[in-house]
């Protein structure tokens, strides 16, 4: 496979540049934007950049293995593709292209409830698909989504719990952002996404749509879901260690420490800042994953050193999809895996278990 970003700047910055050059400005704002003043969006990256890893030396290491296991299945690196809505906005093949690239890279792909491709078609790519569940107002519709995920062959269920309402994303409001006719919510009832297609100046049609569609899950709902499904259950959108503990006690197999990529409550702390307390609270009860702001292999090691067993990567995957479709996503995941391997080697780690023993120092405000 030729490298589509061979002439771009190093790392994923070049992918971002290539994607922005070919993406409609309103769609780009939808992908890149956060809520409010985008304070939390910026803080995610700043917090990661403010963490230094102490390399080990005198180990004699000449190679490193980034492979491991996520939710009991093999993964080529401790990374899964995060759930992201309406990927056909960026490329005609949308989620199916991303799933094929994830399969080739040996990592799980998390399919959003608001996917523009039906779950059955995405699972048919052969990828290790986890289904992300938004809690719907109508319980029967939620149950139907769970059944579809199970029947189609999804290998895990990830319920997102941090969207009682969509955060106010001013870029979408200013753009009056709505879905074009060819992009549909493929996993929902036909016509149920009508609001998402209504273009109104000064209104985010997607926020209007989710406001009419989403419910607010409770602990009782989570307990019921745990009884309802035999799939591994992941709870995404946890920042407070007390909530993580409650989710684990309800039977969650993993929690995702996440502020929704800075797209929900603007003023929430960076996800990486909350990771140690969550990992401590659920130690021995469930696994911990991290998302929001992951961009490099060093970020992956930062998360492992602070208690995560893996991370979810979001926007960079969409950059690759926008720029070069499946091949672009494959290149993003290839770059990330190479960076994880190199970061392991340069910190004296042979594998992910060694990475979990690395020590972290803050070198920013409190250096």
TrEMBL record:
Membrane-crossing segments per the record: none
Cofactor: FMN
Record has Flavoprotein as a keyword: yes
Listed Pfam families: FMN_dh (PF01070)
Domain FMN hydroxy acid dehydrogenase residue range list: 4-365
Keywords: Flavoprotein, FMN, Oxidoreductase
InterPro entries, alphabetized: Aldolase_TIM, Alpha-hydoxy_acid_DH_FMN, FMN-dep_DH, FMN_HAD, FMN_hydac_DH_AS
Family the UniProt entry places it in: Belongs to the FMN-dependent alpha-hydroxy acid dehydrogenase family.
PANTHER family referenced in this protein's UniProt entry, alphabetically: 2-HYDROXYACID OXIDASE 1, S -2-HYDROXY-ACID OXIDASE-RELATED
UniProt protein name: Alpha-hydroxy-acid oxidizing protein
Organism: Streptomyces pseudovenezuelae
């Amino acid at each position: 496979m030729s490298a589509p970003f061979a002439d771009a700047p190093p790392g994923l910055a070049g992918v971002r540049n290539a994607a922005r050059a070919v993406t409609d400005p309103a769609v780009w704002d939808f992908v890149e934007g956060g809520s409010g003043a985008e304070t939390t969006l910026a803080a995610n990256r700043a917090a990661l950049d403010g963490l230094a890893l102490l390399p080990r030396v005198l180990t004699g290491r000449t190679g490193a293995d980034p492979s491991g296991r996520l939710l009991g299945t093999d993964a080529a690196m401790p990374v899964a593709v995060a759930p992201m809505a309406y990927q056909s906005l960026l490329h005609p093949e949308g989620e199916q292209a991303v799933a094929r690239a994830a399969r080739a890279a040996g990592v799980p792909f998390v399919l959003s409830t608001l996917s523009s491709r039906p779950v059955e078609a995405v699972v048919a790519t052969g990828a290790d698909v986890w289904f992300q569940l938004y809690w719907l107002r109508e319980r029967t519709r939620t149950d139907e989504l769970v059944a579809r995920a199970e029947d189609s062959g999804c290998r895990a269920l990830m319920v997102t719990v941090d969207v009682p309402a969509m955060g106010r994303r001013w870029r979408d409001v200013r753009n009056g952002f709505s879905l074009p006719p060819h992009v549909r919510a493929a996993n929902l009832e036909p016509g149920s996404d009508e609001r998402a297609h209504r273009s109104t100046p000064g209104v985010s049609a997607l926020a209007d749509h989710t406001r009419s569609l989403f419910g607010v899950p409770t602990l009782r709902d989570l307990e019921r879901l745990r009884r309802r499904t035999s799939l591994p259950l992941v709870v995404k959108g946890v920042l407070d260690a007390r909530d993580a503990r409650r989710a684990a006690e309800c039977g969650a197999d993993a929690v995702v420490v996440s502020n929704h990529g800075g797209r929900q409550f603007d003023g929430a702390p960076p996800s990486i800042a909350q990771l140690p307390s969550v990992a401590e609270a659920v130690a021995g009860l469930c696994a911990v994953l991290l998302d929001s702001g992951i961009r490099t292999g060093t970020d992956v090691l930062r998360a492992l050193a602070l208690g995560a067993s893996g991370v979810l990567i979001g926007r960079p995957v969409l950059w690759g999809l926008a720029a070069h479709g499946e091949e672009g996503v494959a290149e993003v995941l290839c770059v990330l895996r190479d960076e994880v391997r190199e970061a392991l080697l340069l910190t004296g780690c042979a594998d992910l278990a060694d990475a979990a023993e690395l020590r972290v120092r803050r070198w920013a405000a409190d250096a």
